[in-house]
Structures are given as structure tokens and as C-alpha cells.
Amino acid sequence: MTTTVATARYARWDGTGEPFRLVDTALPARPAPGEVLVRVDLATVCGSDLHTTRGHRSSPVPGVLGHEQVGRVVAVGSTPVGGTPVGNTAVGATAAGAAPGGPGPRHIDGAPVLVGDRIVWSVAASCGHCRRCRRGLPQKCTDLLKYGHEPLDEAHPLTGGFATHCVLAPGTATVVVPDAVPDLVAAPASCATATVAAVLDAAVLDAAGRLGPGDRVLVTGAGMLGVTAVAMAARMGAEVVAADPHADRRERALRFGATAAVEVPDAGAFDVALELSGAAPAVRTCLDSLDVGGTAVLAGSVSPGPAVALDPERTVRGLHTIVGVHNYAPRHLAAAVEFLATEHARFPFAELVGGPWPLEDLDAAFAAAGAPGAAPRQAVRP
Known about the structure:
The chain is an alpha/beta fold and 382 residues long. It is built from ten helices and 16 strands.
């Protein structure tokens, strides 16, 4: 029988228009085989969290929201002898907290997950062996578990970031975060930064699959994802133009490395167009902006919206590529942490996050996140 050593607290979401309710729950003394128990040090309110609470996207009710966070490992489960490792597990050394003689969970780089590790984790856990996982699409696993998007199981409720603790399932990608990276900067890596890494990965231009000097990149939307994309593309040496209807956002994009920031970009002038706002007119702008051989990467349209017409002749004659990106693979989370660790002092990422708010004030944090002119993220410190 499982024993408990302490309690955890989570914020229960009961649907659109309902306030968050704090609930105490027993904290397992030891995670199940393959699991990792993490203390959440800081979480951020993502745009998709706002869409969920406003009823713009479907999500299980009740539930525990939150999927951008950073925390410390407090306990590690073992992998059963003879078990098949998936995701963050591997046959090999025993991690701290694992059963004697049994292999434990591992980070993306192969290092064992240890008690005390400061980590971020993937937005979802994947099985590792279904058809999609075998095709290299673990983010679309047929048995996907998605943090902050699962129905509430009161016996096992710690599945979201708006809680004092989170239990990571087998198949969750984890990356150690250097202590020099502030919590406010690290937490968005789990969603925003890793998603942008996947977006840039999809913008293949040369044999090496990377942008570089001489490439012209358009980024539509200068919110959290947009300015992160601006910074990543600028770091690669590309000439980056940000397009956004709001003057304050355009000014922010310039501070993140944009060569120019405009309301309406030039048509037919870009090698790559990255759509990160989700607005239908911005999707149209990206498609119209492509030069011959250009690639449009669409990642902002994660909620239902109006259809956008496609001119097939222009696509064919222009040798255009149109790619959709949703979530990300484990390598993108590793790339996100590497980018933030290297560049957080160069670009003002900390100013993108307001707060922090205590978990007791989660409703206020959500209200602040949706306020005009607010920082793209609000932080919650459980």
C-alpha cells in the first residue's frame, strides 16, 4: 500500500466563468515506476490557458491547467525490470530514487534524472512505440498525455503546472536548466520557446536545414512566440521583419533583434514566413509574402477560426512550401533550453513575464494576462 509523506495543492478549474479552487491532495512518498515527482517553482499563464478559460478551445472540465513551468525533482520512480523504456526512460544506470538494480528515467541527453535536478518538461508524454511515435511525431502520439489538458482524476490530480507539484509520466521529455537562467525565463521553454524551436526547424532552406545570413524572414505576430522567433532567427544571422498591428509590440520586436517592424510587410519578398498570431489575415499575409521557393510555417492557428483561401497556381509556380507546426519533439525542448541559456542576457526575455502571483491569486493572474498592454505572460509561484 502506498504511503504518503506530505500534501500538495492544485488549482482546480471548473469551467468557463468559474473561479479556480485550491484543493489539497496527498503527495505520494514514491512515484510509480518511470514517473518523476517535481516541485513546481514557477509556472506561466500561456495564451492557450487563456483560450481555454474563455471557452475559445475545448478542454476537459474539471481539470488542472498549466503547461509552462520550471521545477526541482523531489523523487524518481524506477523502470520495472524487463520493462520497455519510452520517452525519458532508458536501460542503464539507476537514478536517485529508483528501485535498487532498476534503471530509472533519463533526460533527453541520456543523463539519469536525479533528485535535485532543476528541469523543464515537455508539454506532453508519448508512448514511444505507436505508429506516429515511430514516424518521429511523438508530439502527436496516439496515446498522448498532455499536461494541463487532462480531465481531473482526484486520485491522481497532479497533471498541470498550476500546482505545488507535478507527477511526470513515463515518456515525458525532460531537460536540466542551468541555475543562471531565471525562473521567469525558463518556464516558457516548456511551450512557447520549444514550439518556436520546432517552427524554425520546419523552415528548411538549405542542406543543413538552417536559416542563415542573406535569408529574409517574416514573423507575423509579436507576442511571446513572435518575439522569441525573431530572436532565434536573428541569432542565426537572418534578416528578420516583424509584422504586428500594435506599435508597442513592433517596438518590442526591434529589441529582440528584428531588422524592421511594420504593420504591413512587402508582398513576395521573403524566403520564410512564420505565422505565430493565429489571426486569419496574418495567415493570408504569410502566404502572400513568399518569394519563389519560400516556406510558410503556420503555428499560431490553434483555435477555430475562419478559413483562408489558397491560390494553388501561385503555390505551384512559386515552388512554395506550407508547413503546419503544433507542439514539438523532444529535441526542440533541448534546443529551447540551450537557446535561453546562451541568449537570455542578450535579449530581454524577463520583461515578457509579469508577476509573480501566488497560487491563491491565480484568478488575478489570469485577469492580468488578458489585460490590454499586459506582458505576454504572467508568472505564478506556487
